[in-house]
Structures are given as structure tokens and as C-alpha cells.
Amino acid sequence: DTAITDNGDDTYDISVAIRNNSLQETNLGSVTADILDSRNNVLASVPLEDGAITLASEQTLTHSLKKVALTAAGKPASVQLRASNTVTLDVAANGGECTDAYVQLTADGKLPDTLPEATNSINTFLGWFTQPTGGEQVLPGSAIAPGTTLYAQFEYKVGDNVILPDYQYSRTPADPAMDKETAQGIDVTYYWTDNEGGFADSDAVDAGNEWTAGAPVYPGTYYIRAKVSGEGFDAFNTNQTVFHVTDRDPRYEITVEANSGTFTYDGTEKRVSGFKTLEFTFDGVTYTVSGLTAAAAGTEVADYTAAVTGTAVVKDSAGRDLTAQFTVNKVNGTLSVVRAEAFTANVTANDRTYDGTEQPLVNVDDSTLVGGEMQYALSVNGAAPDDSAYTASVPTASDTGTYTVYYKLVPDEHHSGVAPQSVTVKISADCTALLDAIADATGYYDTIKDTYADIAAALKNAIAAAQAIADNEDASQSVVNEAAEILNSAKTLAENNAAFEVSKAAGALTALSKALAGDSEEVTAIIAAAKAAIEALTYDETGTPAENDARIDEILTQLDADLAAQRAAEKAAFEAHKAEKKAEVEALTQPGDSENAQKILTDAAAAIAALAYDEAKTPDENNAAVDTIANLAYAKHALQNTINEAKAFYDTVKDDEKHTEIANAVKTALERAETALAGDDPQEVRDAASELATALETAKADKAVGVCPYCGKDHNGGFFDRLVGFIHSLIYFFRNLFSGRSFNC
Which end of the chain is more exposed for a tag (fewer CB within 10 A), N or C? Predict the structure, then answer.
């Protein structure tokens, strides 16, 4: 039994009791008390007494040690007595633990048949040795000198195999690890090789590529092993492990697009070839595509497909073939030979004076004509003529009047058309006879104006009327001739002006001055009522002039209040109308709308929201400005959706030689639609949408011609494919025949 008392001054009092449980006297020799911490490390060793200790049978001997100072840092936990015939067990040297610090030798000076085992958290206990490292192992039952220290030695733990999961090309691999926990003080370095079969037995321990210098990148089979090194043993290698760098999943995706080009027709062959780019960069690595070609050539106005052909090969900058890591999409290019610009003939008006003959209305200079035939037509009731009215003949006329001659260029297959243009032509009346009559009448008027005033006045009016006809450029020849005959006619008109009181007139003018260009009928009525009230005032003899003027001012003040209220109400109604139309525009958004379609509505809603009331316009005109934006948005949104549908269809047929004509028709309609979409005329946009929808419907119907009604495919291949198509047609025919359904042959 032992007891430890802390004196509080870094010393301890120790009490130990030794009991001999045998039935005979026991000679212990000298005895030392070892003070231990919780891990059995010795903090101090103190002899109990000088000389040998002998205990009689079943005798207990108690010893007290006072003021014992520790020789090693720590907290005392227990006391162990050590007789001179013991052996010390040292585990601290190699980082182990043991429940016993000593072993009692037998009477004949040997170790007991069983020795305690030391433990280490990660190493394996080998046994007790005469040295911390090396030395000789001492076995149980061995003879040994008392006081000898035995040292626990351990075998370092290290795994046998390297663990490394497979990883994909361009992905970051996991760090390699051992299959067992590695002991402290052990260095593990990983090496890999792509040698077939892996590492050879004759390879050095550090053969291969060190993992920390770079893991393998390219797909393939690899081997990895670890070099194990540490103090006290020679470096060695673990078993090698197979791992793989696999292909990417999903693969990198690249799109190789052939070059396109647009050229204006000039009679020479045009060409495009090559690609927009054949270099692509992913994760900092640049790859180059080879093995593909694309080219197109043509002279006539048409679209030619630069088809991408060949097998794509993708390599990195080191020339390594990495095609398996990529999905290569191919997009054909287009060579477009477009119509050249056409130029009309120089058409000028053939203005002239009436002479009774039929003559061309315009002069035509063909020296500027390029790319087609000129055609002409006259306007009807001021409206532009229909296309059917145009002919190659230049219009002629003989009667006086103003004529509008329309002309256009009908292009040939290599040139673009020119929109119809017009020129105004004037055939003026011959006023020679009328002017002679006016000169004669004027000379006569001068002879009578002082003598016969009334007659002179009548004649003067007649002369003036005749002169007006002569000055009228639009007068017909028949009117001019008749005017010469009735020159002596006249009539007199008289006009009188009324006077207004100055103050009331000023008040009325003030009321009128409050009118704005955009006033509504309600505002105009308010102003008119105020003006009428002012004009209806009569002078009040009982009041002063200032008081009478104040009555006018009262009407004007009330007018200001009424105008402010009415105009505020009109602006509020305008804001409500804006909100309603903005909501209608925003509600047009449909699932699946393209970005462009959404932008049309977003921009329109923003434009409506930004509109400010324009006082120079009437309320109806302000509301009409909102409606114009909304209506244009409705039309453009519908047109954009039709364009998107048409483009999607065009993409399905543009590279199919069987549908070149269909593709070109849709492309032409698309170009017209895009032009209308860029404009601001709602009617033109609606017309373009209708035309494009019709063209698309026609194209879809044309594409469906020749498609098998049974399986939906065309059977335009070889003999066997055509035979399958024939059989399918029979099945379709009889199936509908016996089911009673109608069908198209």
C-alpha cells in the first residue's frame, strides 16, 4: 500500500507498506521507491533504507519518506517499489506504453516465464531488447543481471499497396494513399510509370515519375507504387497498383463552322473555303482540329453550301491525338451570290403647253439603265398603280392637266429590283387668246374708269377674274377658252367689320390666349364659355371702372382653376391608358419566346412607361402615341415568333440539296420579314408576318410531298428502299380503304 501527499512546495511525503505473504522469511535486498506519473514514467527514485530488508513470514513493514523532491517534471500518480533483484522496462525511448515499469527476477536470477507487452498506437510490438535500437532481444526465462534496463522495440507499420481511384482526362485526380495507416517517422513517396507491365524488379526504388512532379494526363493504363524510407532501415517499395486515366464523360463539345461569304454578282466565279476557327481552348489547354475540309464555288445568283466533310482529328499542342475526348459538331457554311444593284433609266418630265397633239409624258434616257427592263404606268385617282398596270410603253397624253407617271425596273436574274418611283408631268393650257382679251379689256377700262365708275368697277372685276384663271396653272383649256368669252362679267361683294368694347375685347383675347394646340373639346368648351361670359357682360353703372374690370378678372381666375382641373384629369386618364397598354404588352409574353421576342415586348413596355404627356397634342393624340407603340409591339412580337419558326425550319432544309428551292424561298421571305421588323410601320410588319407565314406553310407542304404516309420517311434511295416505299403505300391504301377513312392519293 502507498500514499502520496503534496506538500505544496514541490515536495511530497511518501508512505509505503511492504508485506511478505509467504510462510517463510524473505530477503529483498535493497529496495528503492520509484515515484511514477500516470504513464509509468519515473519522476524520482528514493531508497527506503540502507542495507538489505528482510521480512519474516506474513510480516508488514511501513516506511515514510518526507519532503521528497522530483527529479523529472510531472504529477505523481503511483509508487512502485523496486528490489535490487529487478529489471527495468523502458518504453519511453520508442514511444510506447506498458503497465509495468519493472520485472522481479526469480530466486535464481532469471526473468519470469511471462513478460508484459508494450503497446504503440500505430506500431507493432516486437519484444524487449538490450538497446533502444538494435541490441539483443531478451526472452522470458532468460538469466539476466539485476538492475538491467530492457527496451521495448516496435516494428514500423506501413501499407502494402497504394490506393488511387481511376480518373478522367482533364479531371483533377485524388491524392494517392496507402492501404494502411503509416507510422510516424516514415516517409512515403509515390512514383508512377506507363511502362507496359509496370515497374520491373530491377528498377531502383525511386524509378518512374514522382507523383508530386505531375500526375499522368493522357488516357491509358498506368502503375503506381510507393517508396518507403525512414531512419534505421533501408528504403523499399510497396506493391505496384494499376490505375487508369479514362476518357471524359461527358466529352468536351466543340463546333467547327465552315466559312461563309456573300458576294455581289459580277459574272465571275466566287469561292469560300476553310473554317472560322480550328483552335479551341479548354481548361487552359489549346486543341487543334484537322482532317476536315469545306469549300463552295458558284457564279450564278444562288446560295451554295460549303459542306463540312472528312473525319475530325483533335490534337493538343504536343501533337497527342485526343479525339476521343471530344464531340465535334460540324456546321456547313454558305456561299451567297446576291443580285447586283440595278440602275433605272433617267426619266424626266415632258412638261409642255397644250397644242392638241398626243405626246409621251416623260423623256427616257436609257444610257443609265443597268440590269433589267423599264416599265411605266399612270396613277389612278392619285393612287399608285397595281403591278398589273405597268407596261414597257411610255404613257402619252394630249389634254391639259397634271399627270403622275410611275416607273420601275423589272430586274433580270442577276440584279435586284428598284422600287417604283414617280415623276409629275404638267400639260398647261394655252392662254394666248385669254391674255389678248385681258389686254384689250384693260385698255378699254383705262378709257372709262374716270367717267363711268360703276361700269368700270364691274369690268375691273371681270378682268381680275379672268386674270386669276390665266394665273391658275391647273386651269383646263376649255375653261381658259370660256374665260376669254365672258371677260365682261362681274359681281360685287361688300364686307363690314363690327367694333368691340376695349376691355371686354382684351378679356376675350386673354381667354383665347390660354388655348393650347393640343386642347381637348372639353378644354375648348371651357375657354369658349369664359369668352362668351365676358362678351355678355354689360357695364354696371353703379360700380366703378375698376369694379367692372374686376368682374372680367373673376371670370378669368375661375377659368384658370377650371382649366387646371380639366387638364389634370386628362393627364391622369393618359397615365391610366399607359398602364393598361403596358400591361397588355407585358401579357403577350409566351413560354418559349426567344430573347428577341421578349426584348420587343420589354422595350415597348419601357417606351410606353417613358412617354410623357405632350400638351401640344390632344388627349386622343397622346393616347394614340401609346397605341402606336403597343400596336407595333403586337405586330413585331407576332412577326418575330414567325421569323423564329421560319428560321428553325430553314435550318432543317438549307443543307439538303433536295430542298434547295424550298430553302431559298423561305430565306427570301425571311429577308423581307427582317427588313419589315427593323421598320416602324405596324401595317408593313403585319403584312410581312402574313407573307412569311404563307411562305412557311407553303414550304412545309412542299417538303412533305414525297414523304411516305406510312412511316414519314422518303424512299428515294436504291431499289430496295423504293420497294419498301411501294409496300408502305399499299399498306396505307388498304388500311384506309377498309377503315372507311378518307385519304390523299
Answer: C
Contacts of 244 (CB under 8 A, 6+ apart): 166, 219, 220, 221, 222
723 alpha carbon, distance to own chain's centre: 49
Handedness of CA 231, 234, 235, 240 (dihedral sign): negative
Backbone angle region of 283, left / alpha / beta, with phi > 0 → left and psi within -120 to 50 → alpha: left
Q: Which three cell numbers stand for residue 663?
A: 430553302
Q: Are strands 86-90 and 149-155 parallel, antiparallel or unpaired?
A: parallel
- 520 contact partners, CB below 8 Å, separation of at least 6: 566, 570, 618, 619, 620
Coil vs helix vs strand at 308: coil
> Phi and psi at residue 424, in whole multiples of 5°?
-95, 130
Q: Give the Cα separation of 83 and 53 in Å (integer).
A: 9
Using a cut of 0.85, tell me whether the model's pTM lies above it. Answer: no
Confidence of residue 497 (pLDDT cuts 50, 70, 90): very low
What is the radius of gyration, based on Cα positions, of the chain?
Answer: 58
Q: How far is CA 394 from CA 291, 361, 377, 632, in A?
A: 61, 7, 8, 40
Helices assigned H by DSSP within 189-233: none
Q: Is 90 exceeded by the pLDDT of residue 36?
A: no
- Residue 105's SS3 state is coil
Which of 440, 450, 447, 418 is closest to 485 using CA atoms?
440
Angle, vertex CA 689, rays to CA 688 and CA 693, nearest 5: 115
Grid cell of 477 as nine digits: 383649256
All cell numbers assigned to 211: 507523383
Residue 471's SS3 state is helix
96 close to 124: Cβ distance less than 8 angstroms: no
Q: What pLDDT does 498 receive?
A: 26
Q: What is the pLDDT of residue 338?
A: 93
Using a 10 angstrom Cβ sphere, with 0-12 exposed, 13-18 middle and 19 or more buried, the burial of residue 611 is middle
Residue type at 249 in one-letter notation = D
The alpha helices in 611-715, defined as continuous H runs, are 619-653, 660-677, 682-704
Cell of 557: 381666375
Nearest to 332 by CA among 669, 674, 656, 658: 656
Residue 94 DSSP symbol: G
Q: In whole angstroms, give the CA distance from residue 377 to residue 386.
A: 9
Average pLDDT over residues 241-258: 96
Confidence of residue 323 (pLDDT cuts 50, 70, 90): very high
At a CB cut-off of 8 Å and minimum separation 6, what does 612 contact?
none
Say what the pLDDT of residue 17 is. Answer: 82
Give the torsion sign (CA, 411, 413, 415, 419).
positive
Distance of alpha carbon 69 from its chain centroid, rounded? 80
Query: What grid cell was written down for 540?
Result: 354696371
Could you report the per-residue pLDDT of 260-304, keeping only the tens digit for each? Answer: 999 999 999 999 999 999 999 999 999 999 999 999 999 999 999
529-548 burial, b at 16+ Cβ within 10 Å, e below that, comes to ebbebbeeeeeeeeeeeeeb
End-to-end CA distance of the chain: 117
* Cβ pair 295, 273 in contact under 8 A: yes
What CA–CA distance (Å, rounded) separates 739 from 745? 16
How far apart are the C-alpha atoms of 182 and 166, rounded to whole Å?
23
